[in-house]
Amino acid sequence: MKRKLLWGFGLLGLGFFIIAGWGFLTLQGRESLPVSVGKEDLIRLHVLANSDNTEDQQLKLKVRDAVIAYLAPYLEAANNKEAAKKVVVAHKQELITISEEVLSKNGAQYPVDIEIGMFDFPIKAYGNLVLPAGKYEAVRILIGKAEGKNWWCVLFPPLCFIDITNATAIPKQQGYADNQEQQDGKIEFRFKLVELWKENVK
């Protein structure tokens, strides 16, 4: 009886090491190191609707789509925050014109203004990404009275690509942004290795 129990434990141990080794090899192709950035490295983009009524909220999303489509090719070459900021500053008037054209095509005559500077923001969740409260540099597109709910994303750095339909951020490398830690003003993103492990052993 004792020998059978020992044999059983031995098989369980062998099975564990086989599964662990397989899981480790499967994860080798995925990024596992944390990515840390400071608040000072971020530029946020906020689009504020005229009001919270349905029409104004829909207009906000149309302006968002046009602005992102316009900025995307210019920001591809930006390799730091200052370069990204220069792109926005250089194209500020074009962004205002594009936004007003979108509004006009949809029957709205709201004025549009763009602010670029440091602003106070409450804690915000953006998909799996959580940014602590504090001052951030941001580009704010103000539609009309700008009294409605805003849509926002991280304009730089390109830590995440944007799922516009759901207005969420999807981490790159098929990972999952997880543990956000604040150490010396840093925002740290780690992958949920436990979740990846569960996916691999199913």
Largest sheet, strands/sense/barrel: 4 strands, mixed
- Give the distance, in angstroms, between the N- and C-terminal Cα atoms: 32 Å
Instruction: Work out the number of β strands.
Output: 11
In terms of DSSP E residues, the strand content is: 25-35%
Short description:
This protein is an alpha+beta fold.
Account of the protein in words:
- This protein has 202 residues and is α+β, with helices and mostly antiparallel strands.
- It has helices spanning 2-27, 54-75, 81-90, 92-105, 193-201; strands at residues 35-38, 43-48, 112-121, 124-126, 129-131, 134-143, 150-156, 160-163, 168-171, 182-183, 186-189.
- It has one domain.
- The strands form four sheets. Strands 3-6-2-7 form a four-stranded mixed β-sheet.
- It is globular, with a radius of gyration of 23 Å.
- The two termini are 32 Å apart.
- 21% of the residues are buried.
